[in-house]
Give the backbone structure.
Amino acid sequence: MNPDRVTAAYQPYLLSLFRFVTGLILFQFGVAKLFKFPPVPMFEAVTPFSLFGAAGMFELVLGGMLMLGLLTRPAAFILSGEMACAYFIEHFPKSFFPLLNGGTLAIMLCFACLYLAAAGAGPLSLDAKLHLRPSPQPDDRGFGHGIGQAQR
């Protein structure tokens, strides 16, 4: 029994779970920045029209869209750029090394969202339910997205 074939059956559902958790993490930052819940000392002075407030609005709205799987690709792409900006504006000036400048989470979220922008929402999403972006299936070897394959 090939372990890749066994785990391949769960891959689309794990993508949906990954999308939801990534959205939830971003959503919680948006709630903390804009609604001060839970109270975080770092965000107590954030106002809606500040740079942190604008980031909080992106994280709240687009993080919520990621959780629902609604317009996942554009939302994730925008969030990827937002997290890259967050890293270079807030963390990178403190130190070159992410471990020292506290930017590890920003980097991880940036590339998680970039992956979601490329991979899509997965089957457990509003995108799939509303047929906004049908999830393409990989070929028999598990590569690609089935583009140009003969229909069976």
